[in-house]
Amino acid sequence: MMSQPDFETEDTIIAEASPGGTGAISILRICGDEMPQIASRLGIRVSSWQPGKTQLLDLPGYDQVMAVFFKAPHSYTGENILEIFCHGSPIIVDRFIDGFCRQGARMAEPGEFTWRAVLNGKMTIDEAERINRRIHSRSLEELEIINKTPDLKSILEKLLAKAREALVYLETEIEFQEESAASNLRPIEAELEFLLNQGEISRQNRNLPGILLYGPPNCGKSTLFNYILGYSRALVSKIPGTTRDYIEAELKIRGRVVRLLDSAGMRDSTDEIEKAGVSRTRDLVKNSDVVIHFGTLQPDFAGKYSNKTIPVQGKADLPGLEPDGLIGVSGKTGLGVNKLLDQIIGLIKDRRQENNWQIWISERFANQLDLLHNIFKELLEAPLPELKAEQMKVFINQITGYLEQPPQDLYGEIFSRFCIGK
Amino acid sequence: METKKYHIIVVGGGHAGIEAAAAAAKMGLSVLLLTIDPQRIGEMPCNPSIGGIAKGHLVREIDALGGMMGLAADRTAIQYRRLNTRKGPAVRATRVQTDKAKYTEYMISELNKIAGLTIKAGEAKEIIADDEGFSGVRTSNDTIYKGKACVITSGTYLNGLLHTGKTITPGGIYGQPPSSGLSDSLSSHGISLGRLKTGTPARLLAQSIDFSRCQLQPGDPKVKQFSFFGPRSRLQQIPCYLTWTNQNTNRVISSNFDIAPLFNGQINGMGPRYCPSIEDKVFKFPQRNRHHIFLEPEGLDSDWIYPNGISTSLPPEVQKEFLHTIAGLEKCKIARYGYAVEYDYADPRELEISLQSKVLPGLYFAGQINGTSGYEEAAGQGLIAGINAVLRIRGQQPLIIPRDKGYIGVMIDDLTTKGIEEPYRLFTSRAEHRLMLREDNADERLTTIGRELGLIGDEFWKIFQERQLMARREKKYIMTTSLDYAETVELASELGLKKPSAPMNLQDFLKRPHVSWENLVEKGYGNSELPVWTGERIESEIKYEGYIQRQAKQIEKLKKLAQIKIPKEFSFTDIPGLRYEWIQKIEAKKPDNLKEVMDIPGMSPAAATVLRSYIKKFNRDKGVRENNS
């Protein structure tokens, strides 16, 4: 599968490396063998600079900036790189990009800097993928898993060694009929199953965990939502049914990024808008990782969702609403919130099998594993030893193919998902 | 000093020499077969059997091309067996026990019938060359035979040393002197020689063995014949026996490791890992309590038993002691002690794929001198060397069997491109396209080639063509015959299959792993007149259908790669994603096209993808450059 990008790798490229928007500093990155010539036309003469040392420049018409020059091959991409730290303004950033492009640079494609780093041998594809995943990691736990995951090459090589050993046994069975060397395919199957399971856990962890506040109207969901969020965002009122659809927020709980959702109140209603909101809420229950259930669980709900539900008693600050075996919480006073958050995090860890999470597996690798698994299933089903051997060779070739896949083939699969400027 | 002239001189009268001489003479040239003892042509100095897994495949290929070995094996067989019958048709193989004396007798009488073939006694001492390459052979008694091409099939004779315990006797095989001058002559022409080792077990006297303590191994009367063209053996069929070594045997052997020539430095040549001596087996697998031994008769009139599985070079008294620990052999008498033989081989990487020397044109090598082991491997190379010597003299292109057309091709390609580190034996796993290289279709793959070369006469050609016709009819019958439900249920139960839920056709039955074409014939479906090979061929084609198609696609892909030429000015060094070790290997080989790059051992398909895109880019850029200039 060739997915060669249709842009030239000799071009000088430019992009903003910071997230964009208004702020203290914005960073621009310009890369390419001809960068020094292009920059000099803007009055930036990097050839006289000491590589790696910051320079203060006053560029009339642009900005007062700080800049660093990295000389090829000692740079992120292995090519000449200029990084400009300007005042954090999208207008200034655009001004620079425009200026450089007029002099012969072009806007970088997503991930193009890292792609060049791979093409120039500065890092492997696996390392590049890992960098991207680190940038997007959502919890300390995930970051740790990514950091301790062995490189892809060693995982595949381990599988390859097992497959080659099994092939030797298969072939021995064929070539020496008097020898009884029963081939053992179980270790490969076990390894594949382990990796697939890790892939599944990684997949579950790719999405932010969703925490849903769920219960009848006017039970204190939105108040709790606002309390947890730390600022008033949902419209809080005492009239039942105000939260018709749902409101969500990304926030950090105990060091991990989660989605908190405030659902519409569940009750039978004739209001069309509210009815739509209610059916949406049912989907939310199904798809969320944790449901904070206000009030005692009904048997049919418990039957379906008890493994991800925390039943709470809302408005627990009010007299007469003492919890009845439930966690009493109050969005008004913060009562019980700490305990609730602990339980939420525990449940997320459980639900996402984080205790079993040992290896971070990218979507791309998970797809490769799926294919390998299909080949292997066919192998197990092959009725004759020579056909098993044949299929084992297909399996082995598939793995070596992955091990030796040239980076040119992978732009579309990997780098186009990076941020621009990375 | 006598001087005689032939087109082709074949040095050596073993299995390689026979095929080389016979093929070259049948193709119409004058051939001299020069051998130390013409009474011992086609001798089997080791086991008394022909065939086996991958080796049986080779015999069938030799036979399909018009060689001698298959017919000789049938004529002298005293037991037929089919191996791997529980596995699929591609890896099933034929093996026969032969009567050694009759085998030699048959070969000598057949060679004597071939016009243009002269057999002479003599030891080749020197290869004579002129500016154009090979020009003649000088023997030890100073006779010179002039020729345009020469096939060297010296077996284990070159500087051969026989080891039994501390006793070292110069010799080619037991009772035969070695060839001492030829190695020096080859070296002086610049041919690189190395040292290998192989071995053979003691021979036992049959009447001293208690066969009642061994397991009977009868032949298989259903196996029809080896050759596509000749009849099955008419000789009496006799059984082999099976016994095992035990812990006492292990103890005797391991307590004598210090005086084993293999371990004490006396033998330097590299021996075969897959056919190890018993001392090797005990040394490498100390936890294994027993190793099997097949007791194989050396002939109907012979009193000798060949105990297959315990080749050894231990001292005679140790051989006797360990043999006497074995069930059935407690009182066995030893007719001849086992020995190891060390000999020179010539590096096969110095050969073209035609088996002609790159160093000395006109000189061909075949058999153990190329580092192979086995009668069948030798015969296969001998046949090709003989044919190619003729084609060269005629000024024609050499015969090259591609890897997807025959094990002969796989073997020669392996030898000439990869070289060897131990005696090379053929395995089915050496072939990339194993499912296509079967015993049952060797004729379909190769007989047309044999006919074109003039090695398949009118009689055999007619047999082949008739069989092809019958095969097509039978396949059509199998593919188109469907059974009603009652018939389906009945056939399934007769074949021991689960009761089917719906009617099946014959094809569906044959796709089941353990249903053979023969099973169907036995139950009344199919043409029982059809040769069993041909029936198996149809069975294979149906059983392997999807896999064969996939392999055929791969072969097509490789052929396409062969069409992508590598531009002369193309440089491999700047290609990202191409490993440095590959770049070195590619640049050393100077490939003409991408397939040749892929043929380099260890090269991955991914490398081809990278190279293909860069070669395309190179050609595109070149077009642009040329248009601009």
Protein architecture, described:
The complex is a heterodimer of chains A (422) and B (629). Chain A is 42% helix and 16% strand. By secondary structure, chain A is α/β, with parallel strands linked by helices. In chain A, the strands form two sheets. Chain A has a six-stranded mixed beta sheet with strand order 3-4-5-2-1-6, with helices on one face. Chain A starts with 12 loop residues before the first strand and ends in a 19-residue tail after the last helix. In chain A, 36% of the residues are buried. A six-stranded antiparallel beta sheet of chain B has the order 16-17-18-19-15-20, with no helix packed on it. Chain B has a five-stranded parallel beta sheet with strand order 7-3-2-11-22, covered by helices on one side. A four-stranded mixed beta sheet of chain B has the order 1-10-9-8. The relative contact order of chain B is 0.13. In chain B, helix 2 runs parallel beside helix 9 and helix 2 packs parallel to helix 11. The longest helix of chain B is centred in the last third of the chain and has 24 residues. Chain B is an alpha+beta fold. At the A-B interface, helix 6 and helix 13 of A face helix 20 of B.
